[in-house]
Write a structure and sequence with these properties.
about 450 residues, binds zinc ion
Length: about 450
């Protein structure tokens, strides 16, 4: 909608300016890499049928000192002469980062000159110039405030990761020209790919097509998509020969995850379990999230923790010993439990005040902890231990009570290596446990729970 305004303006500038209105000169497209910011900018120029001049931030920085600024001058000159037009600056972070933050590299001077020149050019626009500057950035909060001032990039358009409906639409675009078998369900693929952006989905379709071609098929089938997804998320199959004892341990470990997921009413539905080694994983249990979840209930998180602990607990029950195979699971559990206690007010003994800053991947992990009293720190530690121990006990009871099912599932895995949820339910005589409905309106607030659905 925001860009539609820009298109209308470029088509018919007089309509917008006749009442004295000022149309934004600078529009910042903000969103994670791969979400299609460049494509959107191009499409805007295409729709408006105006020339499109583009350059990317890093290109400015690589050139010799002084050249960046003169290229900016040339670019704006050309665009103004051929207006109405669009200038697109990709990866503006490379030149537009907050200034004065300590010299990190020798290219700082060049960056500053280039940035200044952009600001000078944008300030120099007058009513006769119908040039709109679009810029793309991964995050607006690192940009120099001077860029965001009124009259410069004063309009921001968020280009977020697509939701389920968006992913399905994107998949439809990418499968044009790919012969699909009748069993292909793009909706199910969209559901299984939360967090993926357009570029990832294009890659997924391509991998599936390659897998189908390798098996000499005439069309791409649903299982090709699942295999492609596993390959992308977890790495290619590894020609790793495990000895019989290790295979058995992996079978029980994955069987533990799968069984807890099957026996827990509000777990994400189980998709597949495999003990074929892939990437760094020796085996994988894949769950399909019902929906993009933006808001997680405490009971959902408690289930998620139990499913993650299922692998470790199954090893413990069957072998009376544990292995390093649970490392990723335990990391995930720690992450969720820590946030439940310190950020989401889910432990009564700590209370609802936030005790830790947000986990920020872009900044390399946890930010410095808030100043917490020694008294409260002890309570936080205690609450994290209590919560985890309760979940361990719950999972132990669940798997011990269903030990015959666990053993049967492990035996099936050793025999078949990969099983889908339907096969497992049938073999174990488990009625289809309906996942809890997620129809109720969910807050559109992304919550940071590790999104990888492979355990
Ligand atoms: Zn595991």
């Amino acid at each position: 909608d925001d860009l539609q305004d820009i298109i209308d303006y470029l088509k018919e500038p007089a309509k917008y300016t006749r009442l004295g209105g000022r149309v934004p000169r600078g529009v910042l497209l903000v969103g994670p890499p791969g979400t299609g910011k460049t494509l959107l900018a191009r499409a805007t120029a295409g729709e408006a049928n105006v020339p499109f001049y583009s350059i990317s931030g890093p290109e400015f920085v690589e050139v010799l000192v002084g050249v960046g600024a003169s290229r900016v001058r040339d670019l704006f000159e050309t665009a103004k002469k051929n207006g109405p037009s669009i200038i697109f600056i990709d990866e503006i972070d490379a030149v537009g980062r907050r200034r004065g933050g300590g010299a990190l590299s020798g290219s700082n001077e060049e960056r500053e000159q280039t940035l200044n020149q952009i600001l000078v050019e944008m300030d120099g626009f007058d009513a006769s110039h119908t040039v709109v500057v679009l810029a793309a950035s991964n995050r607006a909060d690192v940009l120099d405030p001077a860029l965001l001032r009124p009259g410069r990039f004063d309009r921001q358009v968020t280009v977020d990761r697509p939701d389920k409906v968006g992913r399905e639409a994107i998949l439809k675009v990418h499968v044009k020209g790919v012969p699909l078998a009748p069993d292909v369900d793009l909706g199910a693929i969209a559901r299984a790919t939360p967090g993926m952006v357009g570029a990832d989905l294009a890659n997924l379709v391509n991998e599936a097509a390659l897998l189908a071609a390798r098996s000499d098929g005439n069309s791409v089938e649903q299982h090709h998509f699942w295999e492609a997804l596993e390959k992308i998320q977890l790495g290619a199959e590894r020609p790793l020969v495990l000895n019989e004892q290790d295979r058995k341990i992996v079978a029980f470990h994955e069987g533990g995850h799968a069984l807890v997921a099957l026996l827990s009413p509000n777990a994400d539905p189980l998709n597949r379990v495999t003990i074929v080694p892939r990437g760094h994983a020796l085996g994988v249990t894949l769950q399909l999230p019902i929906d993009d979840r933006y808001n997680y209930s405490r009971s959902y998180l408690m289930t998620r923790i139990a499913v993650a602990l299922g692998g470790r607990v199954a090893e413990e029950i069957e072998f009376g010993d544990v292995t390093t195979g649970a490392e990723n699971d335990l990391e995930m559990v720690t992450n969720i439990v820590r946030q439940m206690v310190t950020r989401w007010g889910m432990a009564p003994e700590v209370g609802v005040l936030v005790q830790a800053d947000r986990h920020d991947e872009d900044l390399g992990g946890w930010l410095a902890p808030k100043e917490t009293s020694e008294y409260l720190s002890r309570h936080i530690d205690q609450a994290m231990q209590d919560l985890t121990n309760e979940r361990l006990a719950h999972t132990r009871k669940l798997l011990s009570d269903n030990r015959n099912k666990l053993e049967k599932l492990a035996a099936l895995l050793l025999e078949h290596e990969s099983l889908d949820a339907e096969q497992i339910r049938k073999e174990l005589g488990l009625a289809d446990i309906q996942p809890e409905t997620t129809d109720e309106a969910r807050l559109k607030v992304p919550v940071e729970v590790p999104s990888g659905s492979g355990l």
